[in-house]
Amino acid sequence: MDQDNWIVHVAEARKRLIIVGICFIVTFAAGLYAAPGILLYLKSQPLAEPIAWNVFSFTDGILIYMKCALIFALMFTVPVLLYQLWAFVKPGLTEHEAKSAFPFIPVAFMLFLAGLSFSYYVVFPMMLKFMKRMNQTIGAIETYGIDRYFGFLFDLVIPMAIAFELPVVILFLTRIGILTPDTLRKTRKYAYLGLAILGSCISPPDFVSHLSVTIPLILLFEISVYVSGRQWRKMQSSPSGS
């Protein structure tokens, strides 16, 4: 009987992985089609328009093209992956647990998009202007390669988008009992220090830019503490403790 259950679980996991794989292939193909338009849109933005996207090897253009398609595919595949993961574990959850876990999927996706937008429209322009100003200060001749431009862009916006998942991660850890609101409050000063260090690492070294990145990160942490507290009180007040 146990072996039969194991076979059923493996077959179910295989089916859901195939769905995720098909979704990735389809969205990657769509990303290949959309990549030129996306890249041209990024090039047309006021910040990037005066910058010449030079290529220094034959493969620079195709690599950026493929990276753009890959990020496009991942952006739409991750929600499907999260849903398939939820659907896979749903039979082992109570009805209440299944319903309470499902909203994590759209919320995580929306927070990722919010982090992506904030980092691209706020943090990235500050970083680019600061770096250009520094180069001009020392009299450097600015010749930018397309691979360096997008490497710098992706290295900045992707970690920032992931950082915006903090409320969902903390809420999930609270939901399974690893974190409590008291623990979060006791570690608040250490969290502030860590977020300040993170903000200084991904923002220009001037006070205004540092605050404009660090304050949203701290607000995210405080939102996380608030939603964690609400979830914890709800868990404590429910008859089953969940």
Automatic annotation (TrEMBL):
Gene Ontology BP terms: intracellular protein transmembrane transport; protein transport by the Tat complex
Q: Where in the cell is it found?
A: Cell membrane; Membrane
Transmembrane segment boundaries = 17-42, 62-89, 101-123, 156-178
Q: InterPro entries, per this entry?
A: Sec-indep_translocase_CS, TatC
Q: What is its main location?
A: membrane
Q: Which family does it belong to?
A: Belongs to the TatC family.
Q: Do you know which HAMAP family this protein is assigned to?
A: TatC
- Record's protein name: Sec-independent protein translocase protein TatC
Q: List the source organism.
A: Paenibacillus rhizosphaerae
Organism taxonomic ancestry: Bacteria, Bacillati, Bacillota, Bacilli, Bacillales
